[in-house]
Amino acid sequence: MNINKYEKNVILIVDDTPINLELLLHFLEDYGFKVLVAEDGENALKIAGNASPDLILLDVLMPGIDGFETCRLLKINPATQDIPVIFITAITDKMDRVKGLNLGAVDYITKPLEYKEVLARVNTHLRLRNLTKKLTEQNKRLEMEILERERVEEKLRCNSAALEESNNRYQALIQASGQILYDWHLHTNDIKYGGNVERILGYSMSEMLGGLNRWLELVHPDDRNFFNEEINRVLSTKGRFHLEFRVCRKDGTYITVENNGYIFLDSTGKVARMAGFVIDITANQAVLRERKNAEQKIREQAALLNITTDAILVQDLVNKIQFWNKGAEHLYGWMVEEALGKNANQLLYRKQNFYQMKNIQKTLVEHGSWQGELHQVTKQGNEIIVASRWTLVNDDEGQAKSILIVNSDITEKKQLEAQFLRAQRMESLGTLASGIAHDLNNALTPMLMTVQLLEPKLPDEKSQQWLKIMETNVKRAADLVKQVLWFSRGSVGNFKTLQVHYLISEIENIVKQTFSRAIEIRIDVPHQNIWNIFGDATQLHQVVMNLCINARDAMPDGGILKISAKNFWVNSHYARINIDAKVGSYVMISVCDTGIGIPKEIVDRIFEPFFTTKEVGKGTGLGLSTVLGIIKSHGGFVNVLTEVSKGTEFQVCLPVMQTMDMDIDSKLTEDREFLAGHGELILVVDDEDSILEVTQTWLEQNAYKVVVANDGIDAIALYTKHQQEINVVLIDMMMPSIDGPTTINVLKKINPDIKIIGVSGLASNHEMIKTLGNSVKTLLSKPYTSNDLLRNLQMVINTK
Q1: What per-residue confidence (pLDDT) applies to 493?
Q2: Alpha helix (H) ranges present in 84-219?
Q3: Among candidate residues 767, 768, 798, 766, the one with its CA nearest the CA of residue 780
Q4: Which residues, in sequence order, are bridge partners of residue 757?
Q5: Regarding predicted confidence, which is higher, 644 or 157?
């Protein structure tokens, strides 16, 4: 039974943390102590001076006056200097412990508190204080008895029985303490032991004789220097002895003990004795080491979990989040304190796929793990795609306890995959479209020139009407082919430096005049700061106009159509997640509507040729494919931002380029007489017989001489034969056996100054011609008119 139940010792607790005060107060009151509390050093000094507690539990770290200063002030006050002070602290630094002991503290209790340890140390120091008081009182009483021995010998004999009884109680108290008590007399070097020497060390009292030297024999060799240093410190400072060290038991094993000693001075002020107690703390040390090792292991594991960039979370079987690592914070934006305890399904999913979740749960039950892709949402509302691995975690009895989830962000990867597949699909369709366009152009070229050949030969009104109808439809077909070529990035344009605000102002005038008044037109284009672009004005007009028409059709009941432009810089990160973008300066032209939006399931198909969501007869499906083809031919790219029922924004990004404009056509006149020849010999090379025949006829009617070749081999042979007479070579780029570029290279070796006109409707051939040097003066795009042919011939003939 605890003696404090009867003694009602008063303990003062000093701590600035209310919860610590409350817990410790209730604990000590339950064990029969009377407890006083103070939340800072100033109040502690007042209470200690007024109430004179038996013991003070003092926190080191406090605002204002900290524990060390409070202890110093207590020890210099005669009214409080004898009250034992035990520091309660999280500090483990040895220097800080020494500082506290030098100030007069009797002990340290380390946070977090083990309440049984607190109770044991409190009881021990209270007992020791009571014993010290009793010893002091007894010494005083004995001194008085010695002085008065002769006078009161009879009285001393009467009191001897009481003294013997008191001594028996004292010895019983020592035995019950579970400690070794000692009293070291410095003058004789003798040490008197009490308590549980034999139970703790295994030695009898007689085997412990030999004073301090005998005790040093038991101290572990590695700890003897520390022991001697502490002895010397105590003797010089007259402070309290406190040390943890190892001693040898009789059976040869070592235990760890804690030694607390207090000095007593003689009448001259010199140290005469040191009394104290030794506690076996081996078990406590083992528990402490085990706890530290466990804590270190947990810290290492937690550090590893926080190093990884993957999001790692643990949720219980009802989806409540129990663990949330740094990777999860970075991926989702939710801090750990925000995520713990939340329902994972509500936190990470905008719209749950209940079928998928049910399938995951079923797989976990059957196989213990699941992996796949999940669509989730961040704190900012951004949708992400993760590669997710789920593992069912069981308890020691094999029952399902929680689910470990590891998520890797694959959003950029999936975006790039989608862009790559779309680019592959568009490239395949572009290749097909290019082939079709080439064949159609070869068929339309002789048709268009034949109409122009027949015009002077059929002067009657009806024939002219039919020829006009034929010419109109041939040109319509040619325009359709041109759209297909734009889609496949194969059309040749008239590129020049363009100012964006002029381009958009022209579109503004058209849409304001032609669109419904229910559609509000908004323009946001700064005139001064927008960079210039390099492109074909007609093609870019068509791009913006197509997008405006689509926006109009998406708002049948009216809305807002906004056209804007701004300078836009593509950095390396943006270029990495947009397959068509390159690092550099762009101008972004945006066409934004508040219409019906585009469903996500068809967004990836809207640029495919002939794909349309409009009713039959209301769209060809070439509008957006033409837009994409034109923009790609300008080195740009297109982004689409859309949400159903809220609207769509098309972002057209064109690279910034500065160049000088060259308008060759403006230097030529449409005067037919000027375009006619003067007997120059033209070599026409084409694998299409119809084109050869019509071209030869038209040139000969306009005072030119003509020789024709069906392929590159014939062309080389004819040029070799008539090199001195041939003025210009008109050659098709796509021919069997030897193609146009190969033929041109051979002709250049024969005559480096040869003048050549390339013929093709594909931009890929146009780019190829640029690499052939100055011999190729220009490119004539199929299908071409008679005037186009004559104009280009005159230009080349007159070029030196």
Answers
A1: 56
A2: 94-102, 115-147, 153-176, 197-201, 211-218
A3: 766
A4: 730, 778
A5: 644
Question: What angle is formed at CA 74 by the lines to CA 71 and CA 80, rounded to 5 degrees?
Answer: 140
Locus of tokens 């009881």 = 123
pLDDT tens digits for range 543-573: 898 899 889 989 999 999 999 999 988 888 7
3-class SS of residue 400? strand
User: DSSP 3-state assignment of 701?
Assistant: helix
Residue for token digits 């109109």?
472
Backbone φ, ψ for residue 531 (5° rounding): -70, 155
What 3-state DSSP class applies to 37? strand
- Chain-centroid distance of CA 657 in Å reads 35
As to burial, measured by CB atoms within 10 angstroms (0-12 exposed, 13-18 middle, 19+ buried), residue 734 is buried
Neighbours of 745 (CB within 10 A): 13
Pairing of strands 383-394, 369-377: antiparallel
Query: What is the C-alpha separation between 134 and 142, in angstroms, rounded?
Result: 12
pLDDT for 708 equals 93
Check if the beta carbon of residue 91 is closer than 8 Å to that of residue 97.
yes
783 cis-preceded (ω within 30 degrees of 0): yes
Contact between 391 and 404 under an 8 Å Cβ cutoff? The reply is yes
DSSP code of residue 206: G
516-529: b (≥16 Cβ within 10 Å) or e: eeebeeebebeeee
Q: Which one is predicted more confidently, 30 or 610?
A: 30
Phi-psi map region of 757: left, alpha, beta (phi>0 left; psi -120 to 50 alpha): beta
Cis peptide preceding 112, ω within 30 of 0? yes
- Give per-residue burial for 63-91: e unless 16+ CB within 10 Å, then b: eebbbbebbebbbeeeebeebbbbbbbeb
Assign 175 to helix, strand or coil.
Answer: helix
Contact 581, 632 (CB under 8 A): no
- Parallel, antiparallel, or unpaired: how do β-strands 55-59 and 85-89 relate? parallel
Please name the amino acid found at residue 792.
N
Q: What is the largest CA-CA distance in the chain?
A: 170
Domains of the chain: 4-133 (3.40.50.2300), 178-286 (3.30.450.20), 308-409 (3.30.450.20), 495-655 (3.30.565.10), 669-797 (3.40.50.2300)
Please report, in angstroms and rounded to a whole number, the separation of the first and last CA atoms in the chain: 123
Residue 668, pLDDT above cutoff 60? no
CA atoms of 655 and 581, how far apart (whole Å): 10
- The secondary structure of residue 140, as a DSSP letter, is H
Q: What angle do CA 364, 369, 373 make, to 5 degrees?
A: 100
Radius of gyration of the chain (CA): 51
β-strand partners of 705: 681
What is the identity of the amino acid at 511?
V
Instruction: Tell me how far apart the alpha carbons of residues 326 and 313 are, in angstroms, rounded to a whole number.
Output: 10
Mean pLDDT of all residues belonging to the chain:
81
Cβ contact 641:648 at 8 Å: yes
Residue 625 pLDDT grade (very low, low, confident, very high; cuts 50, 70, 90):
confident
What the block records as the tokens of 360 is 């995951």
The residue with tokens 């029952």 is: 399
Return the half-sphere exposure (C-beta side, CA atoms, 13 A cut-off) of residue 517.
0
Q: How many CB atoms lie within 10 A of CB 12?
A: 24
Determine the Cα–Cα distance for residues 88 and 292; give it in Å rounded to an integer.
19
Is residue 398 a contact partner of residue 368, using CB atoms and an 8 Å limit?
Answer: no
**What amino acid is encoded at 183 in this protein?**
D
Backbone phi and psi for residue 650, each to the nearest 5 degrees, phi listed first: -100, 125
- Tell me which residue of 719, 784, 796 sits closest to 757, measured CA to CA: 796
pTM for the model stands at: 0.35
Q: Please report, to the nearest 10 degrees, the dihedral formed by the alpha carbons of residues 102, 103, 109, 111 taken in order.
A: -110
Between 778 and 230, the more confident residue is: 230
Residues 6+ positions from 771 with CB-CB distance below 8 Å: none
